[in-house]
């Protein structure tokens, strides 16, 4: 339920960013309710695609007209090579929460993630990107597979490739500041990853040494505020959304992808071969099992995540190749 609430808030803010460009501007208050007549959906797709859809919208309280509006929007998505699985007009008209969120995620993935990472995957032989459900990737090499089916199978692979490309970019930009980003979930809980992305854009905006002395909540609040006020990156998340055991991956991906639009120089090598695993060069951790007033910070350098160490004041594991211990406040 909490994951659904986080997605609902994040996706609603993302939608409203784009609906603000519609003339006259529109705004979603309750996503599961406001989407049911098709107007919000058609207007959003019109803004994102630059194509006219709203001339086909019919305002009515009758279910048949609502279904027709939604069906036209879904047909537009399918014609745009967005693969929709188990999503039909009736479920959206009924405000089915999981399917509404699934539909919006498909739209975000196609129109935002594709747009921002697709043109930078220069070594990729794939030219089309759509979204599909998570699951085993289909074999796309069988010669008897019809072209349409083969293309749809490729889109599932490309969905993952786009997210991996974004993760590769984040890893390259943050690791020089001693932050190891392994995923779009727990790696972001401390707030340091968000701050490192901001620092990679403008090094004057963030002091990583100071960030080590702050709590996760303070770092998250700093990151979201600096990003919005200094970089113009809209605030889609709140600290409470990230300070959970398993932060929502889709919400974090949606937010982090916005930074690509604001990065001054996007290098092609940041996105080449997103399937390649990069070693984690360093990560910040807190020293455990010490009184809070004596708590220190340590920077651990390691060649792989299998070789990670934590050190406290009294005892330690066998020493890794390089360990730099920074005590507070020095």
Automatic annotation (TrEMBL):
This is Calmin. SUPFAM superfamilies: Calponin-homology domain, CH-domain. The keyword Nucleotide-binding does not apply. Transmembrane segments: none annotated. GO terms for cellular component: cytoplasm; meiotic nuclear membrane microtubule tethering complex; nuclear outer membrane. GO terms for molecular function: actin filament binding. Residues 141-153 have a biased composition (Polar residues). It is found in: Membrane. Its main location: membrane. Keywords: Actin-binding, Membrane, Phosphoprotein, Repeat, Transmembrane, Transmembrane helix. GO terms for biological process: nuclear migration. The keyword Ribosomal protein does not apply. Pfam families: CH. InterPro entries: Actinin_actin-bd_CS (IPR001589), CH_dom (IPR001715), CH_dom_sf (IPR036872), CLMN_CH_second (IPR047826), LINC-complex_assoc (IPR052403). Residues 124-138 have a biased composition (Low complexity). Residues 124-153 are annotated as: Disordered. Residues 5-112, 160-264 form the Calponin-homology (CH) domain. It is a single-pass type IV membrane protein. It comes from the Eukaryota.
């Amino acid at each position: 339920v909490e994951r659904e609430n986080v997605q609902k808030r994040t996706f609603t803010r993302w939608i409203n960013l784009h609906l603000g460009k519609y003339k006259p501007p529109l705004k979603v208050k309750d996503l599961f309710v406001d989407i049911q007549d098709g107007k919000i959906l058609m207007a959003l797709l019109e803004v994102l695609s630059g194509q006219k859809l709203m001339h086909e919208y019919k305002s009515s309280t009758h279910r048949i007209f609502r279904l027709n509006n939604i069906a036209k929007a879904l047909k537009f998505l399918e014609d745009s090579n967005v693969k929709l699985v188990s999503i039909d007009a009736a479920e959206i008209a009924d405000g089915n929460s999981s399917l509404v969120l699934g539909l919006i995620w498909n739209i975000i993935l196609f129109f935002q993630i594709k747009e921002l990472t697709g043109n930078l995957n220069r070594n990729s032989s794939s030219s089309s990107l759509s979204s599909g459900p998570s699951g085993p990737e289909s074999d796309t090499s069988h010669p008897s597979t019809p072209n349409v089916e083969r293309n749809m199978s490729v889109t599932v692979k490309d969905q993952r490739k786009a997210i991996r490309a974004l993760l590769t970019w984040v890893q390259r930009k943050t690791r020089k500041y001693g932050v190891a980003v392994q995923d779009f979930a727990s790696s972001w809980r401390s707030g340091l990853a968000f701050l490192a992305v901001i620092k990679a854009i403008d090094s004057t905006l963030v002091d990583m040494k100071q960030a080590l002395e702050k709590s996760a909540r303070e770092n998250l609040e700093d990151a979201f505020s600096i990003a919005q006020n200094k970089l113009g990156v809209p605030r889609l998340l709140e600290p409470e959304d990230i300070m959970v055991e398993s932060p929502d991956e889709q919400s974090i991906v949606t937010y982090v992808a916005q930074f690509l639009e604001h990065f001054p120089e996007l290098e092609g090598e940041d996105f080449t071969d997103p399937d390649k695993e990069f070693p984690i060069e360093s990560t910040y951790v807190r020293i455990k099992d010490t009184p809070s007033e004596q708590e220190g910070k340590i920077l651990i350098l390691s060649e792989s995540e299998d070789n990670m160490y934590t050190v406290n004041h009294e005892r330690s594991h066998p020493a890794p190749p390089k360990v730099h211990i920074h005590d507070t406040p020095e």
